[in-house]
Design goal:
Distance between the termini of chain A: 64 Å
Number of strands of chain B: 5
Largest sheet of chain A: 7 strands, mixed
Strand order of the largest sheet of chain A: 14-13-26-25-24-15-16
Number of strands of chain A: 29
Number of helices of chain A: 22
Strand content of chain A: 15-25%
Helix content of chain A: 25-40%
Number of helices of chain B: 8
Largest sheet of chain B: 5 strands, mixed
Oligomer: heterodimer
Largest interface: A-B, 12 and 14 residues
Strand content of chain B: 5-15%
Shape of chain A: globular
Shape of chain B: globular
Chain lengths: 683, 227
């Protein structure tokens, strides 16, 4: 309805901040107005991605018109004509007062606190606090609370900002943290001190502005200023979460999320955060050759000689693992092609959905876009385990009123969703209200997960996408609601680089290659390749290494620069954070050396040349950002989905060789998923 | 208050209270209470339901009543709300007992007006009868707590025992009340001062005396000089 006032309503209010007049968006708070004016407002409880609590009082400013006292700027709407002062004597005194009260019960244990050096309270008390304390009474002490294997608590340090409570309720969707008692006695805890049981629990460590919630695996490991920080891309799922890898010496000590509103916002799954302690265990750091059924240490030359002689007798095939960067896969493709073969595959479990048109296997609506969908049909995906951060987006969509339907066995989605049945054949016979909801939606979306792909739901889902017209103009913006959710970080890159045979893994088995190059493939069944020389090029002693005849030690994702393509078709570059241990080399150098051994040329001698060659062949890999894969192809009408859907992830914490080697992930799996009562080690 | 903590969640507690369910008449009340709130806002009923549950537990145990963890879980399940939110409410308000109490819960107000009117003596009188702050007497009769202002300042000092207030206390008057309760009688609630009915002035009014019988404008008498 258009009213006469519509024009004035949409006008942006003008406020004055410290004498400077600025326009602010309608609905902004005074705090946001101050930030727009370039003023720093100290805060503890306010967080951009959480609801406003207004309970720390650190953001006090002077506002006219209004009561003649400082106002909490985070909870005060900016209105036209406000005069805001952030630099007055009153504000300075108010901040000092609030800080003094906050510090009354905060222990002076900064020298032994893991938050030291990256602590909001520390920084802000230096910037806004008084020089000393006037408090001589006893400080309050609070007992520790158990919150699980990832979160270490020192609750005496808590300043009751309730960010953790709001995060678990609003973002994670699992109400398990709460504030008990009140006033000075308020305590943050989980219900009966149960461990927090969701995939994003460790984000409260980042949110905690003080050292009350710190990282248990990282406890007393390092100070922030000792760490070398490298920008990387997470490989624990196909989201392509932006991470910062903190390294001291050669060891990755922790991984933190980087802000990227299009991908991971500022969250990170617990697995992405803590699988890195697996990087120092079960590592392959030398060449091994199987002799008389036993793996024995060997030299690179011997291994290359064996591979070269085996390759003379037949074809070479390559299987790409789930954690690979595009450069490694491109080098392998060049090598296999130069050896006269096209046997490239990446779908280790034998999936054979058509990969000729990448628009049909991409997450087209993008992660940020799926938030705006108003009807979503999920086919065979346990989203919470396959892409926890996507589930956060779906939860936002559901909160905005999206109807969400799921085909597959039940899991706890954290939002309202209707489970339509466990058998994929329900796609051919959807209940009327589902079809009506999808047809009536302005921005309908379909998400096909790995479970759905295995059950043959890809074609039928594509047919439904066309029937419901999920590619359309929505409010003048192109909307493509057809999505495939992959689980392997390497998958989209692999498909772009042609690591997909029409009939999948079966084709490789049928070809019975003389040499099978396994590039960190740890999820596949090696039994059918009994006649092949199995060369495992990877970094962890896992399933692939166990089956291998030759092991060539390579680098994990933190130990090489690389290009990754996420399941939404976003190209991102990662830097090298640390060196691989022992004799391990960067993957591409191994393949380059192998080319010499096989007597073929693959056309590059350096990483830069490799990248240039790769971008020349697949130009989309050259630029960061979303790839446009073009229009959605027509569905092959003959395909029918059928059979019960099984989710491939059986254990969220142990989905890749790094995580399986990680003590932290093993403990999470045992304690959180298998409920073992683990006696807590004495500190 | 720091000693306030939920009674430990033990197998014995589960065995005793795991099968908690509303009695017939309470189930009727629960329906009525939940019905007060609009559709989708049923969680608002958590406070009256917890109170009702505490009273039902009280009837079953012949005490003032308290909230065992399984009972809170029962209420949470009925209102379809996370149990941690119920626990937050139950621990926030002093009116909910989160650990077992005795037959009579003696809550002595110790806030300033009561303290000025010698609530310390009242507390001592309770202690003289064998009560200990935060504990229940061995016979299960008395639980003693110190609480903040109950809003009876005009008839201070006061105690609240279960649902009744006893005001204008002296140690002797308190003893009389507690003796009567111990005998199973119902002593008179409210002021224990025989000269008072409610909180009217004792004797002649000392303040605003000129207004007793007619309106009186005091403003002309205000002194502008600092005292």
């Amino acid at each position: 309805m258009v009213s006469v006032d519509a024009q004035t309503e949409t006008e942006m209010p003008t406020v004055t901040v410290d004498g400077t007049e600025i326009e602010v968006p309608d609905g902004a708070t005074v705090l946001q107005a101050c930030e727009l004016a370039g003023k720093e407002i100290p805060r503890f409880c306010y967080h951009e991605r959480l609801s406003i609590a207004g309970n720390c009082r650190m953001c006090l400013v002077e506002v006219k018109p209004g009561p003649p006292k400082p106002q909490a700027s985070c909870a005060l709407p900016a209105t036209h004509g406000q005069e805001i002062r952030t630099d007055s004597e009153m504000v300075k005194k108010a901040r000092e007062g609030v800080m003094e009260f906050l510090l009354i019960n905060h222990p002076l244990d900064c020298p032994i606190c893991d938050q030291g050096g990256e602590c909001d309270l520390q920084d802000q008390s230096v910037a806004y606090g008084r020089g000393g304390s006037r408090y001589h009474e006893n400080k309050r002490a609070v007992t520790e609370k158990y919150m699980g294997p990832l979160i270490k608590t020192i609750m005496t340090r808590c300043i009751h900002c309730t960010r953790c409570v709001r995060f678990s309720e609003e973002v994670a969707g699992v109400d398990e943290i709460g504030a008990l008692y009140r006033g000075e006695d308020m305590q943050i805890t989980t219900y009966l001190e149960h461990a927090t049981k969701h995939e994003l629990s460790a984000n409260v460590i980042d949110l905690c502005p003080v050292g009350a919630l710190t990282s248990r695996p990282y406890a007393y490991e390092a100070r922030p200023w000792e760490l070398k920080k490298t920008l990387g891309i997470d490989v624990s799922d196909a989201m392509g979460s932006n991470i910062r890898i903190d390294v001291r010496g050669r060891e990755v000590l922790r991984v933190l999320p980087r802000n990227n509103d299009d991908v991971n916002e500022e969250w990170l799954s617990d697995k992405a955060r803590w699988q890195v302690d697996g990087l120092t265990r079960r590592r392959l750091d030398r060449v091994w050759i199987r002799r008389d059924g036993k793996l024995q240490p060997a030299a690179w030359d011997q291994a290359f000689g064996m591979i070269a002689s085996a390759a003379k007798g037949g074809s070479v095939a390559a299987m790409a693992g789930d954690l690979l960067d595009c450069e490694t896969m491109f080098a392998a493709r060049r090598l296999v092609n130069a050896a006269g073969s096209q046997l490239l595959e990446s779908r280790q479990t034998g999936m054979s959905y058509p990969a000729g048109n990448l628009a049909a296997v991409n997450f087209n609506s993008t992660f940020a876009g799926i938030e705006t969908a108003d009807a979503v049909l999920i086919v065979g995906s346990h989203v919470r385990w396959e892409a926890p951060l996507l589930n956060v987006r779906l939860r936002k969509a559901a909160k905005r009123g999206a109807k969400i339907f799921i085909v597959g066995p039940h899991w706890e989605p954290t939002y309202r969703a209707e489970f339509l049945g466990e058998d994929a054949s329900v796609l051919h016979d959807l209940p009327d209200h589902v079809a009506a909801a999808m047809q009536g939606a302005a921005r309908p979306a379909i998400i096909v997960g790995a479970g759905g792909l295995v059950a043959g739901a890809h074609g039928p889902a594509l047919a439904l996408a066309h029937a419901w017209n999920v590619v359309r103009d929505a409010d003048g913006v192109r909307w493509n609601g057809f999505n495939v959710l992959h689980m392997a970080a390497a998958r989209m890159g692999a498909l772009m680089l042609g690591f997909a045979r029409p009939r999948g893994l079966a084709e490789l088995v049928q070809a019975a290659p003389a040499v099978l190059l396994s590039l960190g493939a740890d999820e596949m069944d090696y039994a059918p390749f009994a006649g092949s020389l199995k060369v495992y090029i990877g970094h962890h002693g896992d399933k692939g290494a166990t089956a291998a005849d030759i092991i060539l030690p390579a680098s994990a994702y933190t130990e090489k620069a690389g290009t990754y393509v996420s399941t939404e078709g976003r190209v991102q570059f990662a830097d090298k954070a640390a060196f691989a241990p022992g004799d391990a080399r960067e993957d591409w150098t191994i393949l380059r050396a192998l080319a010499d051994a096989l007597g073929v040329s693959i056309g590059f001698d350096s990483f830069d040349q490799l990248r240039t060659a790769m971008v020349a062949e697949v130009p989309a890999l050259g630029a960061e950002g979303l790839i446009d894969f073009g229009p959605l192809p027509a569905a092959e009408s003959a395909e029918r989905a059928g059979g019960p859907i099984a989710y491939p992830v059986k254990d969220f914490y142990l989905t890749n060789p790094i995580a399986r080697a990680s003590a932290t992930m093993q403990r999470c799996s045992a304690e959180l998923l298998h409920g073992e009562e683990l006696a807590e080690a004495a500190e | 208050m720091a000693e306030r903590a939920p009674h430990p969640d033990t197998p014995e507690l589960r065995a005793r209270w795991g099968s908690f369910a509303w009695t017939g008449s309470n189930a009727e009340k629960v329906r009525e209470i939940i019905g007060r709130y609009p559709e989708g806002r049923q969680r608002s009923a958590v406070m009256p339901l917890l109170d009702l549950a505490q009273r039902q537990v009280g009837e079953e145990t012949q005490t003032q009543g308290w909230l065992p963890i399984p009972v809170m879980e029962y209420v949470a399940a009925q209102l379809d709300m996370p149990i941690i939110r119920v626990l937050e409410v139950a621990t926030f308000y002093m009116m909910y007992n989160i650990a077992p109490v005795g037959r009579y819960h003696v809550q002595v107000c110790g806030t300033t007006p009561c303290m000025l009117r010698r609530s310390d003596d009242i507390m001592d009188a309770c202690k003289a009868r064998g009560m200990k702050k935060g504990h229940t007497t061995p016979d299960g009769m008395w639980t003693l707590s110190e609480v903040e202002c109950m809003g009876n300042c005009a008839s201070a000092p006061m105690v609240q025992i279960n649902d009744a207030n006893y005001e204008d206390l002296t140690p002797a008057r308190l003893d009389a009340v507690l003796d009567a309760l111990a005998l199973g009688e119902s002593p008179k609630e409210g002021t224990q001062d025989p000269a008072r009915h409610t909180v009217e002035p004792v004797g002649e009014p000392t303040n605003l005396a000129a207004m007793m019988h007619a309106n009186h404008d005091y403003r002309s008498e205000w002194s502008t000089e600092p005292a």
